[in-house]
Design goal:
By secondary structure, this protein is mostly helical. 47% of the residues lie in helices and 0% in strands.
Length: 58
């Protein structure tokens, strides 16, 4: 399986607001990635979710 690659993306107008809970370690890692790639926290979260869904074992 290919590794996740974080890339800069245009903002989507098709969004849904939802509250989620994540553990502290994951939160810290996502924050680090967002800062490293100069992206918003949400942009990183969306890329992680899209990657996970695209690579979900059926």
């Amino acid at each position: 399986m290919d590794k996740l690659k974080i890339v800069s993306q245009k903002k989507s107008r098709d969004t849904v607001t939802r509250t989620i809970r994540i553990n502290g370690v994951s939160f810290d890692k996502i924050n680090e990635l967002a800062e490293e790639y100069d992206l918003s926290f949400n942009a990183v979260i969306n890329q992680v979710i899209e990657y996970g869904l695209a690579n979900l074992e059926e």
